[in-house]
Write a structure and sequence with these properties.
Subcellular location: Cell inner membrane
Subunit structure: The complex is composed of two ATP-binding proteins (BtuD), two transmembrane proteins (BtuC) and a solute-binding protein (BtuF).
Bound molecules: adenosine-5'-triphosphate
Radius of gyration: 18 Å
Family: Belongs to the ABC transporter superfamily. Vitamin B12 importer (TC 3.A.1.13.1) family.
Pfam family, one: ABC_tran
Enzyme class: translocase
Helix content: 25-40%
Strand content: 25-35%
Oligomer: single chain
CATH topology: Rossmann fold
Number of domains: 1
Largest sheet: 6 strands, mixed
């Protein structure tokens, strides 16, 4: 087990919720605006204190120092504009500063793979201030993946992403989910807040549905994302249909 959260809370934003995260597991937090998703996943980063107990790799999260946390997990907050002005490759290099002297050829290989996966290879010499919203988000994602890429960081275990697909078009979103699956296949646990319920239905191993700061239900996507639970939580009409062997949600309002 990577992480064990017991009675995680920050009232009234988040009421006590307990869950575990295993190696290679993809966990989605879903729920309406203001339901506590960002609050919950930000606490897993170890940067925000709240109530309850988080055990991360067998040790209390609060007992880790920041350099150790930077090697073991990465936290990508909700999208913000760049605060400073550097080239993309320079920005990506900042992700490596926490790592223990990774081999240069391994770094180059990781960089090539991540940049190709997120389609930013042609952006490496651009200033981050000049990127579009979706391009900047892909650069932020690339930096996050680089920080916890197993081939250059053997201590990496957890990737925490707050609405990573915000600002991405459907093609770039598909590429992002492919990369997330690739990270999970390498044993990295991925926890994310998400609004695209069809993606959650397809991509998540475990889902926590929040409403008004409380966890309404948690479990597998098919158990959690029933029409009744989604309609009552989101106060909108939902239909779930089967299409080519896959469940698909339709929103009629
Ligand atoms: N820094 C803060 N101080 C006080 N209240 C806050 C703070 N940040 C968020 N909140 C409140 O806590 C509640 C939960 O917010 P949170 O950001 O966790 O929701 P969310 O589910 O991630 O929402 P969204 O889908 O809109 O991103 C909201 O009512 C929000 O207004």
């Amino acid at each position: 087990m990577i992480l064990d959260a017991k009675n995680l809370a920050m009232p009234p934003r988040l009421l006590p919720v307990s869950f575990t995260i295993d190696a290679g597991e993809i966990v989605h937090f879903i729920g309406p605006n203001g339901s506590g998703k960002s609050t919950a996943i930000s606490m897993l980063s170890g940067l925000f204190e709240g109530q309850g107990e988080i055990t991360f790799m067998g040790q209390l999260l609060s007992d880790y120092d920041l350099p150790s946390l930077a090697r073991m997990r990465c936290y990508l907050s909700q999208q913000d504009r760049p605060a400073f002005s550097v080239a993309v490759y320079h920005y990506l290099a900042l992700s490596l500063s926490a790592l223990n002297n990774p081999r240069v050829d391994h770094v180059q290989h990781a960089l090539d793979e991540i940049c190709q996966a997120l389609n930013i290879t042609d952006k490496l010499n651009r200033n981050i201030q000049t990127l579009s919203g979706g391009e900047w988000q892909r650069v932020r994602l690339a930096a996050a993946c680089l920080q916890v890429w197993p081939a250059i960081n053997p201590e990496a275990t957890l990737l925490i992403l707050d609405e990573p697909a915000a600002a991405l078009d459907i093609g770039q979103e598909a590429a992002m989910y492919k990369l997330i699956r690739r990270m999970a296949e390498q044993g990295i646990a991925v926890v994310m807040a998400n609004h695209d319920l069809n993606r959650t239905l397809r991509e998540a191993d475990k889902v926590l549905l929040l409403n008004n700061g409380s966890c309404v239900v948690k479990g597998s996507p098919s158990d959690v994302m029933t029409v009744e639970q989604l309609e009552s939580t989101f106060a909108t009409q939902v239909q779930r249909i089967e299409h080519e062997g896959r469940s698909c949600l339709i929103f009629n309002d």
